[in-house]
């Protein structure tokens, strides 16, 4: 199968990068599908954003004035779901709840003018955080960046977003506090660095056994 599939809706997207489709198995056996966004995902995206807490929405939309949140319009969500997958790439993480598809994460980037740099954003549903979804989205987003010639991915992260900054540090992003506004941290990395680096994982069973057998506590007992 080709990595690129033409669509029959040239007014919205002209091709669909199937090479970015991936699956993720979470603890407990639940499965999540990571794929490029489709125009018909506008309602799923709206549902995820609108059910998020005010704190999470402020982290996703840092320019929002506290207390001034108004649900985005259907047209705005349509625009967010209708991207060209070249200069504006968006990925979503979906799962099935009661046989109904549900969006639990989103990541996207847009290329800045004619440069080789893109600004990215990332959001994961609160109930689905700390399960590897954010990392899977970022790895696939970096692959998409490499595919379209983007060398650098960067973002502005709120300093209070400890979970996001922690993940950026694990993936060795360069994190720099804003010189003017200490509430903002600038993060950036080379796109190919993420695709070349394996995701941080917990030790496998054999590795765990090897560590346990060689600990001083075990050796000294016998």
Description:
The strands form 2 sheets. Strands 3-4-5-6-7-8-10-9 form an 8-stranded mixed beta sheet, with helices on both faces. The protein has a two-stranded antiparallel ribbon with strand order 1-2. A hairpin with a 2-residue loop joins strand 5 (88-97) and strand 6. It has one domain: Aminopeptidase (3-Layer(aba) Sandwich). It has helices spanning 42-51, 54-60, 74-81, 133-147, 162-170, 191-196, 205-213, 216-221, and strands at 4-9, 13-17, 22-25, 31-36, 88-97, 100-111, 117-124, 152-158, 174-177, 184-190. It is α+β, with helices and mostly antiparallel strands. The radius of gyration is 19 Å and the shape is globular.
Task: Give a brief description.
The protein is of the alpha+beta class and about 220 residues long. About 30% of the residues lie in helices and about 30% in strands. The protein has an 8-stranded mixed beta sheet, with helices on both faces. Strands 1-2 form a two-stranded antiparallel sheet.
- Head-to-tail CA distance between termini: 57 Å
Succession of helices and strands: EEEEHHHEEEHEHEEHHH
Calculate Rg over CA atoms: 19 Å
The description of the largest β-sheet is:
8 strands, mixed
Strands, total number: 10
Structural class comes to alpha+beta
CATH class: Alpha Beta
**Form type:** globular
